[in-house]
Design brief:
- This protein is an alpha+beta fold.
- About 25% of the residues lie in helices and about 40% in strands.
- It has five helices and eight strands, in the order H-H-H-H-E-E-E-E-E-E-E-E-H.
- The chain has a four-stranded antiparallel β-sheet, with no helix packed on it. The chain has a four-stranded antiparallel β-sheet with strand order 5-6-7-8, with no helix packed on it.
- A hairpin with a 7-residue loop joins strand 2 and strand 3.
- It starts with a helix and ends with a helix.
Length: about 160
């Protein structure tokens, strides 16, 4: 009960002192993330207009995973999952979508289970191995070159990468 009272008093003090007006609009605005990536409805509209998303499927997941850094520009990485409408069993399409700094499509990569985790420089680290059409090898790291238009796959031990 004491903790609850302290929290309430802190909120009241914070609101009365006017400190709330000095805070940035959001964490994402503070770190420079463009408005389009903050507003999910605008992002969905952008992806439909670019025909990245299919109107005959149901969008069930959309997230801005991270930003790639390629040639001193940020490339947003969007993760999507769409389900086929009317299917008796859930069937879907998972995509990693890479946009350029002008929000134009650079690359889409379909995957079954290799979920994108995070970016580091020009690399996207994945949970599991990815098979990409046109590649004979598999990997858990996508490396983007040539302004994001060229990719290659690597295998890295994520246990050495992640702090545990």
């Amino acid at each position: 009960m004491k903790t609850f009272n302290v929290i309430i008093l802190g909120i009241v003090f914070f609101a009365q002192t006017g400190c709330a007006n000095e805070l940035p609009k959001s964490y994402f605005t503070q770190i420079g993330m463009p408005e389009t990536l903050q507003d999910r409805s605008r992002l969905v509209k952008l992806l439909y207009e670019a025909e990245i998303l299919n109107k005959d499927r149901s969008l069930v997941h959309l997230s801005h995973t991270c930003n790639l850094a390629i040639n001193n520009h940020e490339y947003p990485v969007i993760n999507t999952r769409e389900l086929v409408k009317g299917a008796m069993t859930p069937r879907g399409v998972n995509q990693i979508v890479v946009l350029n700094y002008g929000y134009q499509l650079v690359k889409t990569i379909e995957y079954s289970t290799a979920l994108p985790l995070f970016c580091e420089g020009n690399k996207i680290y994945l949970h599991g191995d990815l098979i990409v059409d046109g590649f004979s090898e598999t990997g858990n790291v996508l490396v983007f070159e040539d302004d994001g238009y060229q990719i290659r796959l690597l295998n890295e031990d994520l246990n050495k990468k992640l702090p545990l």
